[in-house]
Design a protein that fits this description.
- The complex is a heterotrimer of chains A (about 325), B (about 350) and C (about 500).
- In chain A, helix 2 packs antiparallel against helix 3.
- The N and C termini of chain A lie far apart (about 70 Å).
- The radius of gyration of chain A is 20 Å and the shape is globular.
- Chain A has about 325 residues and is an all-alpha fold.
- In chain A, about 70% of the residues lie in helices and about 0% in strands.
- Chain B is mostly helical and about 350 residues long.
- Chain B has one domain: ABC transporter involved in vitamin B12 uptake, BtuC.
- Chain B is about 80% helix and about 0% strand.
- Chain B is globular and about 75 Å long.
- The model of chain B has no long low-confidence stretch (mean pLDDT about 90).
- Chain C has three domains: about 230 residues, P-loop containing nucleotide triphosphate hydrolases (Rossmann fold); about 190 residues, P-loop containing nucleotide triphosphate hydrolases (Rossmann fold); about 50 residues, no CATH class.
- In chain C, the strands form six sheets. A six-stranded mixed sheet of chain C has the order 6-9-10-3-11-12, sandwiched between helices.
- The longest helix of chain C has 16 residues.
- The N and C termini of chain C lie far apart (about 50 Å).
- The mean pLDDT of chain C is about 85.
- Chains in contact: A-B, A-C, B-C.
- Chains A and B meet through helix 3, helix 4, helix 10 and helix 12 of A and helix 6, helix 12 and helix 14 of B.
Chain lengths: ~325, ~350, ~500
């Protein structure tokens, strides 16, 4: 296999595995910037994966090749609906954010497998989808020498979309007034309130965006990697996205980059066989790397106050 | 005093009722008979001696992981690392039993349990040390440690315990098993094992620890108010580490007991063991009270064991019980809703009373 | 003639439970005027201003803004009426830039994008007009307290406020920053804005205010023209009464040096709070530390009790060096402390009274043996102290949280005194407790002195200091600026010194 083919494989596999993480990590960033800790990303991904798969199975005949893309939207909508639970619990009923997020993670697999059994004759997993997200070769761009083959041939289109969403997310958070206000309620809700900003409203916005993007993340996982839904479709990707968000210091661009890095780590066991010097490294180290790195990053960045200051704190308005 | 403890029971009771209602509504929506299913669930978990044996066996790791969560929680920490600590305990227990099969039975069992507990404790202590010295959030570190333990232990099983190409370790020798012929014979061949009694003893020990020892008192004090504890001369860093160590010891013991009593070996897994998270749910429902944990564990264990028979007697998916469990914890989490409703009701009653007085 | 006034507060009363924080207060603010609101801690100044800025609602009374009755139920209402408050604890977001902090909630936009250029231009114009030097790009967490305050002022200006309330604006500022602030206040007034500023520093009032309203115990004492009133008269009005020599102090042997502090320097969050501090406390002596809040008293106590490490200097208890020992070692050496914040530091509220009474002794005999707590002994000890110190409670197993403030404080006093310390540190020991408890706690502190122990009393209550102390030292900006004899000093002299002003008349 030629060197450029190896590079192409490395890049495309990395991007395929990174795409779900990017969307979900971005979702986490929105929620946490508004002050709501979100350990429930895993649950939101599960709901997204399940709903998109079911939609794909039912509607592939109608929408043909466009089905997986519409499925993403379906996953997003159901992820958003599911995240409402987290929003209501934490914003209205002052629930501990960790407890509420953990409930989402417990509830999502239970509910989705329950429904899977109902829809598919008692089986715990869905059939394989017919219309999945294949690889994509950019017309024109792929003709660029070397780079074209590396980055733009047989690659993951949805990953590029994810990166664009990352850039838009950054712009939204740091350049628009809604973004500024959303961050202000996560930093100092009391101060925001004195300036006439509705704390609950912006926190809802943050959580719902995280549900939307987490749902897409789960959907991407199902539409491009596992190609069906079962209880192990999402196995830790939500937490890995949380790790990417932290590694990226809560910044959408940082989270995107971290997610790509973790995507590389996830793809290494698969592509390790092609790359001579990696072939001898046991895949367990690649599996562990994202989580270990996150702990190291957290320890090193301590004291620099990278997390939103009021992240995890319920805001109780005094009269 | 009595009124207060009654009030303390209100929230969990209401949450359990609300959780069962959610389950019933979900079943109704999809055309299943909630009443019949709940009856099947009861029979399936407590209807005969075999089911009771299974339910009690399933309770054991729940009690221990719940106690582990509760200890950390008393010190003010949210230890989500139960699954990883349990996994290390399971791995430690089986490894010891496999490594020293020639030891006398009792010593082999004690050694295995200790080995598992200590591995779980050390694993959890990492999060405690990072928290005490670097202020690193234990929520994130324990989540990350969970996944590290999952992949590491899979690797360890494949490379050290299992025969080449296998995904499971060999079984431990019979004398290392906690599931003795005697217990099998009185429970109609269930997996009920001595671990259950160990768990009950540990409940008492944890209660004693919190209520009767200096160290437990320090953990409680630091958990409630770190500043005041420091002012009173408590070594806060050390207390944090001790709390996380004990927390992991307990979850690890849960894993070791499950290994020796239930599984008899350890296998590679794709997912973190549910019991770690369910233990957390048990502790939350019991408001971290050691004796309350027994009852909460019984409830959740019965749901899980009974859930298996739901799908035997009807075509209702057994996942309905997990929906019920998650809903119960959701309602525990939003207890402010109940407090608010109860306060409103009380207020209503009072205004009525004062109106009546006029 | 209401139309002459920008703000008119009429007969304002604010009641918290049975306690009247403000009692029938009226005040007027003219256009272009700087009005000082003078009073001791707890006199009711902040409560009054919180009502004007929409954070609290008056129990009775009326507020007129520009001659119109105003309903101020929310800070947003105050904003609409052009009232801007600069809080003592700034309402800023440290992670945001100065610019973002200023425009938050009122951002100029181009589509959905914030028009940062326009915002910066508008703010720079305002900054030039009022000579406010601010760095718009800097993050708030990186700028000085003085600049943070200018950001708060700019927030109000940006929202077109014309009535400015400053709550203790100089409390956290350096002398140079205070000078700048005074310039800014003048500039605000010259542009036709009106300013109310809350303070208890006399020098600043003389320098900047036109009129001064003096408040004491929730009531207006007087409203005076600053130019016609000498500082000493203002101090007298603020403090209120002649020195009360109610307690007759018995003679004690004061030959032994209990506590000796030499050149102590303490930093807190990078700010130098105690500088080259020297102090001696003798046996049988109460040394009162007077001073305005935030002049290093908290850090002094924290260093003496082992809660924070000192940067340099020596602390000795009867020749035993204490500096940088742990809190437990210091307590074992014989230092007791009644802390400033009883609910968050002195007690662990959800624990029982008996447990709180052994909070510093739970780990040794008789409360504990071989690591096991002896609840019989703990509760017995609790019952004894409840009796000895007259703590009103149902039983020793009642939670500390369920006690009244006075009785909570008695639990702490009981614990600290029962340990028979060589040195007792008392920080605002009677803050917020009822009169009965005050008398009782004073008696107990006096008894410690009479038993030959050393007492260090840190208090913001001048009365308390004057009544109990054998010697008074005045702390200002981390240093002792003077030592006074309570028998011969006057409240004027004390008030002036606390405000950082050296006494003019030298004692012979």
């Amino acid at each position: 296999m030629s060197f450029s083919t190896v590079l192409m494989t490395v890049f495309s596999t990395t991007l395929i595995y990174a795409a779900p993480l990017i969307f979900t990590a971005l979702g986490g960033a929105f929620s946490e910037h508004s002050g709501i800790v979100n350990v429930g990303l895993e649950g939101m991904m599960i709901v997204g994966a399940f709903s998109s798969t079911v939609f794909n199975l039912f509607c592939a005949k109608i929408f043909g090749a466009a089905t997986p893309w519409i499925s993403l939207l379906i996953g997003a909508v159901f992820g958003l609906l599911f995240s409402l639970l987290h929003a209501v619990a934490t914003i209205n009923f002052r629930a501990d954010h960790i407890i509420s997020g953990t409930v989402l993670n417990m509830l999502a697999p239970a509910l989705c497998v329950f429904l899977t059994r109902i829809f598919y004759n008692g089986k715990g997993q869905t059939p394989i989808i017919d219309q999945s997200m294949g690889t994509f070769t950019f017309p024109g761009l792929s003709k660029i020498p070397l780079l074209g083959k590396m980055l733009f041939t047989h690659t993951s289109l949805v990953a590029y979309l994810a990166i664009i969403v990352g850039i838009i997310g950054w712009y939204f958070l740091y350049r628009t007034n809604i973004g500024l206000r959303l961050r202000s309620v996560g930093e100092n809700p009391v101060a925001a309130d004195t300036l006439g900003i509705n704390v609950a409203e912006y926190r809802y916005l943050g959580v719902l965006i995280s549900g939307f993007l987490g749902g897409i993340g789960g959907a991407v996982m199902a539409q491009s990697i596992t190609l069906n839904f079962s209880v192990s479709t999402i196995s830790g990707q939500g937490f890995m996205s949380l790790a990417a968000m932290i590694f990226g210091k809560w910044n959408p661009l940082g989270a995107t980059a971290a997610a790509i890095f973790f995507g590389l780590a996830q793809s290494l066991p698969i592509i390790g066989g092609y790359v001579p010097f990696l072939a001898h490294v046991n895949s367990v180290w690649f599996q562990i790397a994202p989580y270990a790195i996150t702990i190291v990053v957290l320890v090193i960045f301590l004291g620099k106050a990278v997390a939103p200051a009021a992240d995890g704190q319920n805001y109780i308005k005094s009269k | 005093m009595q009124i207060k403890s009654l009030k303390g029971l209100m929230i969990p009771l209401l949450s359990v009722i609300a959780g069962f209602l959610v389950g019933a509504i979900v079943m109704l929506i999809f055309g299943y008979d909630p009443l019949q299913n709940y009856i099947n669930l009861f029979i399936g978990s407590l209807g005969d001696i075999y089911s009771i044996g299974e339910t009690l066996r399933n309770m054991t790791p729940l009690i221990l992981t719940a106690l582990g969560f509760a200890v950390a929680s008393k010190a003010g920490f949210f230890n989500i690392g139960g699954p990883g600590q349990y996994l290390f305990g399971w791995f430690g227990g089986i490894s010891f039993a496999l490594a020293f099969p020639h030891l006398p039975g009792l010593i082999l069992i004690i050694g295995s349990l200790l080995c598992g507990a200590i591995l779980g404790g050390i694993w959890s202590m990492i999060a405690g040390v990072l928290r005490a010295y670097f202020g690193t959030s234990e929520v994130i570190t324990t989540i990350m440690l969970n996944y590290i333990s999952l992949y590491f232990i899979n690797y360890a099983i494949r490379s050290w315990l299992a025969k080449k190409g296998n995904d499971s370790s060999p079984n431990i020798v019979a004398k290392a098993s906690l599931n003795t012929p005697f217990l099998k014979s009185i429970t109609n061949n269930s997996t009920f094992n001595w671990g259950f009694f160990i768990a009950l003893v540990v409940v008492v020990l944890v209660w004693l620890y919190f209520n009767k020892t200096n160290s437990g008192f320090e953990i409680k004090a630091v958990g409630i108010n770190e500043t005041a504890s420091r002012y009173a001369g408590v070594n806060v860093k050390q207390t944090i580490i001790v709390a996380m160590l004990i927390s992991g010891l307990l979850a690890g013991l849960g894993g070791a007991i499950d290994g020796l009593g239930n599984f008899q070996n350890i296998s590679v897994s794709n997912n973190l063991p549910d019991v770690g998270f369910n233990g957390m749910a048990v502790a939350l429902l019991a408001s971290e009270n050691p004796f309350g944990i027994i009852f909460a564990a019984l409830l959740f264990s019965a749901l899980q064991i009974g859930g298996l028979s739901i799908s035997v007697y009807s075509n209702t998916p057994s996942e309905i019980v997990d929906i019920v469990i998650a809903s119960i914890i959701f309602f525990v989490g939003i207890k402010y809703l109940f407090e608010w409703l109860l306060a409103k009701k009380r207020h209503h009653a009072q205004t009525k009373l004062s109106e009546g007085g006029r | 003639m209401a139309e002459n006034y920008v703000v008119e507060m009429q007969h304002i009363t604010k009641q918290f439970g049975n306690y009247k924080a403000n009692n029938d207060i009226s005040l007027q603010l003219k256009k272009g005027e700087i009005l000082a609101l003078l009073g001791e801690n707890g006199a009711g100044k902040s409560t009054l201003m919180r009502m004007l800025s929409g954070l609290l609602e008056p129990t009775s009374g009326q507020i007129l803004i520009d001659g119109q009755p105003a309903h101020l139920n929310d800070p947003r209402d105050a904003k609409k009426l052009g009232i801007g408050m600069v809080h003592q604890h700034f309402m800023l977001i440290p992670a945001f830039s100065v610019l973002e902090n200023i425009i938050l909630g009122d951002e100029p936009t181009k589509g959905i994008k914030i028009n940062f250029q326009k915002a910066a231009k508008d703010i720079q114009q305002l900054a030039a007009k009022y000579h406010l030097k601010i760095d718009l790009k800097a993050k708030v967490r990186d700028i000085t307290v003085g600049m943070q305050q200018r950001v708060e002022i700019m927030k109000a200006l940006y929202r077109q406020a014309h009535i400015f309330i400053f709550d203790e604006p100089t409390a956290a500022l350096t002398p140079q920053e205070i000078k700048q602030l005074i310039k800014i206040l003048r500039a605000l007034a010259n542009e036709g804005n009106s300013v109310i500023f809350i303070t208890h520093k006399l020098k600043e009032i003389k320098e900047v205010a036109d009129r001064c309203v003096v408040i004491r115990n929730g009531k207006v004492i007087d409203a005076v023209k600053v130019s016609e009133t000498p500082e000493a008269a203002l101090a007298e009005m603020m403090v209120g009464r002649k020195v009360n020599l109610g307690i007759i102090k018995q003679e004690t042997d004061q030959s032994q040096k209990i506590l000796k502090v030499e050149n102590l320097t303490v930093e807190n969050h990078g700010r130098l709070k105690v500088r080259n501090f020297n102090l001696t406390v003798h046996s049988g002596e109460i040394v009162g530390v007077a001073g305005v809040d935030g002049n290093g008293q908290s850090e002094l106590i924290a260093a003496l009790t082992g809660l924070i490490k000192s940067k340099s200097g020596i602390i000795k208890l009867l020749n035993q060096p204490l500096q940088n020992l742990s809190a437990r070692q210091i307590s074992q050496a014989g230092v007791g402390c009644i802390p400033e914040d009883r609910q968050n530091v002195g007690l662990i509220l959800p624990l029982t009274i008996a447990e709180n009474l052994v909070l510093k002794d739970y780990y040794h005999q008789p409360a504990s043996r071989h690591g096991w707590l002896n609840y019989a002994a703990i509760n017995q000890h609790g019952r004894q102290l409840i009796k000895d110190f007259d703590i009103r409670s149902q039983s020793e197993k009642e939670k500390a949280a369920d006690l009244s403030g006075g009785n909570q404080q008695k639990v702490i006093v009981a614990r600290e005194i029962a340990a028979q310390p060589k040195l007792l540190i008392a920080a605002n020991p009677t803050r917020g407790v009822d009169i009965g408890a005050i008398e009782y706690i004073h008696e107990k502190i006096m008894a410690q002195r009479n038993a030959g122990r050393g007492v260090l009393l840190v208090s913001f209550e001048l009365d308390e200091i004057l009544k109990l102390s054998d010697r008074i030292v005045v702390m200002h900006e981390g240093q002792i600026v003077g030592e006074l004899d309570p028998k011969t000093t006057t409240s004027e002299e004390l008030g002036l010194m606390m405000a950082g002003k050296k006494p003019v008349m030298q004692k012979g």
